[in-house]
Amino acid sequence: MKLKINKKLPPEGINKILIRATNWIGDAILTIPAVYSIRATYPQAHIAVLAKPWVADIYKLFTSIDEVIIYENEYDNVLGVLHLAKLLKKKKFDLAVLLQNAIEAAIMSFAAGIPRRAGYNSDGRGILLTHRVQRNKEIKKLHQIDYYLEMVKALGCIAVNKEMHLETKINRHDAQSVLQEYIPDVKKEIIGIAPGATYGPAKRWFPERFAAVADKIASMFNCQIILLGGKSDWGTSEDVRRLAQTSVLNLAGITDLKEAVYLISQCRLFISNDSGLMHIAGALNIPTIAIFGSTNPQTTSPAGKQSIVVHQEVSCSPCLKETCPSDFRCMELISVEAVWQVAQEILRKDLDLKS
């Protein structure tokens, strides 16, 4: 795909790079190939990622960046952005690559005196960028992995394989230690479920249906089911735990993100709404059932060859709304049986049925 750009980045003379990360866990995962591309293009450069606290561990775990700079909550205003810019100016970056599309990222890098500022020409920020990539209708239809990759490729960065293979980045001993911490006596396969979703209820399948699927899995397979998510997902996960007839361990909001990543890496199957944890499971190549309602699987389906999307086409989807303004038919039409059938197909490959 040919994207319009005013000029490409120079291949030499760039020794310090700042990458402004996206703000959500799933988006951070989907930018990893673009980060790999920047690293491949400038292998000797010092690369720092400016990231919100809750996505910082994604870059620490899965990329070869040299530094993570935390974008603290106190920077979320005009004075805060200017203060951050002052701090960044002292670091003397040669280039800022803005994966985040907001104008705030361009203002910050401009105020920091970074001489080369590159990114999509979005949100009216083009005048602040020295290297502008023009978005078009076709790029917006691409999967988000390609959306970010095409931008850095247009800037002149090396093309890389978009298959992430993040499972190779996980220390198995550390992962098993985290598992033992939360489930000391487990001798069963682990099934993970993430019934929450940060953006809003339109992305969430029903707790009673997650619970019903958990019961069906537990009735046929020797496994321990765990629920994962952030603090805001605890209530939804507790509903699933309470409604399930089988024993389910609710760890939502109890683990930090790094621990959640390790636990997901130990799962035989992961079932999730369209969420950050879904993207982690897919990128770790864990067999993943991704339940999509209001969002678009064409652009945000999980990576990984073992990911299966369960989705019902309806006239109003993808609406991309936080809450459904009508009858929530996109989720109503996804039955327990539909998800259970996919789960069976995955689990029957390796796990023994209960006697």
Write the layout of secondary structure elements.
Layout: E1 16-20, H1 25-30, H2 32-41, E2 46-51, H3 56-62, E3 67-70, H4 78-89, E4 95-98, H5 103-111, E5 116-120, E6 131-133, H6 137-141, H7 144-154, H8 172-182, E7 189-194, H9 207-220, E8 223-227, H10 234-243, E9 248-250, H11 257-265, E10 267-273, H12 276-283, E11 288-292, H13 297-300, E12 307-311, H14 329-332, H15 336-347
Parallel strand pairs: 1-2, 1-4, 2-3, 4-5, 5-6, 7-8, 7-10, 8-9, 10-11, 11-12
Helix pairs in contact: 2-7, 4-5, 8-11, 9-10, 9-15
Keywords:
six-stranded parallel β-sheet, Rossmann fold, 355 residues, 15 helices, alpha/beta, 37% helix, 2 domains, 12 strands
Write up this protein.
With 355 residues, this protein is an alpha/beta fold. It has two domains: 16-162, Rossmann fold; 167-347, Glycogen Phosphorylase B (Rossmann fold, 3-Layer(aba) Sandwich), CATH 3.40.50.2000. It contains 15 helices and twelve strands. The strands form two sheets. It has a six-stranded parallel beta sheet, with helices on both faces. Helix 8 packs across helix 11 (257-265), helix 9 (207-220) packs across helix 10 and helix 9 runs parallel beside helix 15 (336-347). The longest helix has 14 residues, at 207-220. The protein starts with 15 loop residues before the first strand and ends in an 8-residue tail after the last helix. The model has no long low-confidence stretch (mean pLDDT 93).
